[in-house]
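Lecture notes, continued. The same structure-token format from the folding unit now serves as the input rather than the output. Read the line below as a description of shape only.
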């Protein structure tokens, strides 16, 4: 991958990381002590049984969403580190090259197609 493409990829990954963080902020508070960590907000809609049940259900959903989005950010951070180290585009499992088409479709890929299965 040439330097221009690498720079564009890095910028796209940073933009996606910021988008994911903004999405997280709609359901969670940023943990100021741990980078890229968020804590889901527990909703408070009332004290009756139905409100409490809805709060727990919503909170459970938020936890799942939080975990998924944080995992995506962690993956992007891994890829950004690989870019900085000069190892971007190499599969984390087999060490072989990740197909260019895969990188174009999914810049945060850390595995080649064979190893991603």
């Amino acid at each position: 991958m040439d330097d221009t493409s690498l720079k564009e990829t890095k910028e796209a990954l940073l933009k996606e990381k910021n988008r994911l963080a903004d999405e997280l902020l709609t359901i969670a508070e940023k943990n100021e002590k741990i980078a890229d960590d968020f804590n889901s907000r527990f909703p408070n809609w009332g004290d009756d049984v139905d409100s409490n049940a809805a709060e727990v259900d919503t909170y459970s959903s938020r936890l799942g969403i939080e975990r998924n989005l944080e995992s995506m950010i962690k993956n992007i951070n891994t890829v950004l580190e690989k870019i900085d180290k000069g190892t971007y585009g190499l599969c984390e499992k087999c060490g072989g090259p990740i197909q260019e088409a895969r990188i174009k479709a999914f810049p945060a890929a850390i595995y080649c197609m064979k190893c991603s299965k």
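Point for the exam: Residues 3-86 form one domain.
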